[in-house]
Amino acid sequence: MTKRSAANGHKVSQNGSLQDEEKKVGLGKKVTLLRGISIIVGIIIGAGIFISPKGILKHSGSIGMSLIVWIACGVLSLFGALSYAELGTCIKKSGGHYTYILEAFGPQMAFIRLWVDLIAIRPAGMAVISLAFGQYILEPLFMPCGIPPMAVKLATAIGITSVMYLNSMSVTWSARIQIFLTCCKLLAISIIIVPGMYQLFKGETRNFENAFELNNVQLSGMPLAFYSGMYAYAGWFYLNFVTEEVDRPERTVPLAICISMAIVTACYVLANLAYYTVMSAEELLASEAVAVTFAEKLMGKFSIAVPVFVALSCYGSMNGSVFALSRMFYVASREGQLPEVLSMVHIRRHTPLAAVLIMYPMTMIQLFVGDMYSLLNFMSFLRWLFIGVVVLGLLYLRYTKPDLPRPFKVPLFIPVVFCVTCFFMVFLSLYSDPVNTGIGFAISLTGIPAYYVFIYFNNRPKWLQRALNSFNRTLQIILEVVPAEQ
């Protein structure tokens, strides 16, 4: 006897055997244009624009120059995003940085990138943005008192757990919630921009007088201002992590990237203009949380809502990051560079359950025992090094594979300018902070012996191979996952 599977309409045996289930589970193409925009915007706009846009002002030296840096960083980020759009339309595989380095420069370089992401960058980054969520979701409950550090960590742990659970249960619902959270953060920015523009049109322009005064501008500080700006825009590459799940990627990926970067750049520049209508440069530099100070000056008691919006913004970044990063681990497992169970999909929910959960224990460890901020300092230059390597790979593929189909192709100067910018920021890190940069570089070099131990040498002892196979099968049974349909 046979029956119809409720999941996909295929016939399966009465006992629902694992072999039959294997043939029909997989990740669907559920990322539409709107969902693609929500992923990019939702991840880029985190807590930074609400809390501390003062790094750019501090290093640029004047209000006018800081606004120019915000615009220039938006344009440079668009250049990088367009380069990734070309890669995403000619290499239609998920995985982002990992996949493109693998295609251009081979498995060893790709594994080093994967190794650094897995052991340090991604868990630490997730822990930091989650801590911001925990801090600001509790802020209205404890005002005006300070929040106990353990309470922040417990709220953070609940936030991380809920994000992991959501992405484990449903691709559709995680995408829907991402759209909702992106709308929330755009509403929050609108609450800043609209009153700010009203003040500007009323004639509140005293803080813009002598905006381009060059007395405090130092050329040595400009690279650091750009560094802060590029960090604020980071996240435009996350749609490339889920390319296989994008509906009509040759159209959706470039369009989503262009629309998203236009939205983010406009929001960042207008929000900064709004801040300056009520705060002088000195007040902005002295503020712990710029959006809260702005709201207190203009909105009185309504300012208590700002921390809630900041928390929702952080939650959106957490959700989008887990959704995208799990696909990188999924693809790396499929390529044989991570345990096989990570490339399996839940038999009913059609989510890459194991790939979602792999970051959970490491993130929780970082949250409670790790020094995340130091680790992020170690790794900040590696982010731009590997992004520069990816865009260099685009140029290399144009030379080595000129016949590769490219539905979307950017002018050559775009990847060249962006690649030079990335390597300049890497050089700046080496110059300005050689100790932390050196430690980060040393951590990345541990990926070389790890590659040879775990990947290159296949002649493992039989007892070890049996143990690994048994562990893989046990996890497969516990998590109810099977190999995805190709």
Mean pLDDT: 82
Label the overall shape.
globular
Number of helices: 21
Structural class: mainly alpha
Percent in helix:
over 70%
- The run of helices and strands is EEHHHHHHHHHHHHHHEHHHHHHHE
Work out the number of β strands. Answer: 4
Beta-strand residue percentage? under 5%
Biggest β-sheet strands, sense, barrel: 2 strands, antiparallel
| Rg calc | 23 Å
Strand order of the largest sheet: 1-2
Which runs of at least 5 residues are low in confidence (pLDDT < 50)? 1-23
Q: What's the end-to-end separation, in Å?
A: 27 Å
Describe this structure in words.
This protein is mostly helical. 71% of the residues lie in helices and 2% in strands. It is built from 21 helices and four strands. The protein has helices at residues 18-22, 33-44, 48-51, 54-60, 63-90, 97-105, 107-142, 149-169, 171-202, 222-233, 249-278, 281-286, 290-299, 306-334, 353-357, 359-369, 372-400, 413-432, 434-445, 447-456, 462-479; strands spanning 2-4, 11-13, 344-346, 481-483. The strands form two sheets. It has a two-stranded antiparallel sheet with strand order 1-2. Strands 3-4 form a two-stranded antiparallel sheet. A hairpin with a 6-residue loop joins strand 1 and strand 2 (11-13). Helix 5 (63-90) packs antiparallel against helix 11 (249-278) and helix 7 (107-142) crosses helix 17. The longest helix is centred in the N-terminal third of the chain and has 36 residues, at 107-142. The two termini are 27 Å apart. The relative contact order is 0.18. Mean pLDDT is 82; it is low at 1-23.
